[in-house]
Amino acid sequence: MSAMNRRAALLAGASLAATVFATPRRALAQAAAPTGPFTLPPLPYAFGANEPHIDAQTMEIHHDRHHAAYVANINAAVKDHSQVAAMPLEQILAKLGEMPESIRPALRNNGGGHANHTMFWQVMGGKGGAPTGDLATAVTRDLGGLDKLKADFNGVGTRVFGSGWVFVTTDAVGKLALVARPNQDTPLMEGQRVLFGNDVWEHAYYLKHQNRRPAYLEAWWNVVDWAKVAERYAAAKAGSLKL
Ligand code: MN
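A: This is the predicted complex of the input protein with manganese (II) ion.
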């Protein structure tokens, strides 16, 4: 990219970000929908559904502004790349190295952000507790049981430097693994499937927990929807889990 093009792209990005953050929520949702192949999925519960562990204002800003911005930005990135625009997101992420170099960072950051948050909303809105059935069996077999999983997951999440995610992945036969990734990277980039994960960017918890990321990680288990996680587990084993 030439210096002029880079400058124009930076200015366009800054302008888009300013628009996204300055636009009222309702107008943003209406404006974001028709602009490209990727769309912001509606939050599947009320903003306050995860209170008191995650406050309603954090959920609203996180979904309506942060996630909406990732969607707007990936739509902008693929605007002049019709072949990429026609691809499912999980394929774009799994084949990042084959994507046009000029938009590869935008696809990685915003495509990853879109995929990660789409998963994230799905696995919350619950009441915590414990997994059941073959998911519980797999947690015990592969991760040492729920108590050990929580301790290890919280430890890995605490040690993510800066911004990132902690995930439990599953392969096609249902073997689970605990991994962390920086920024908006996702195991989808290695062709793996994400069973569930937690966002440890400060925007996910700062209004309520400030700098106390360990407290947020601990509280987050109270809003996990294990029935939804079990659905994702079954879908992964059936080969139908995409994001
Ligand atoms: Mn986030």
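The beta strands are 164-170, 176-182, 193-199. The CA atoms of residues 3 and 195 lie 41 Å apart.
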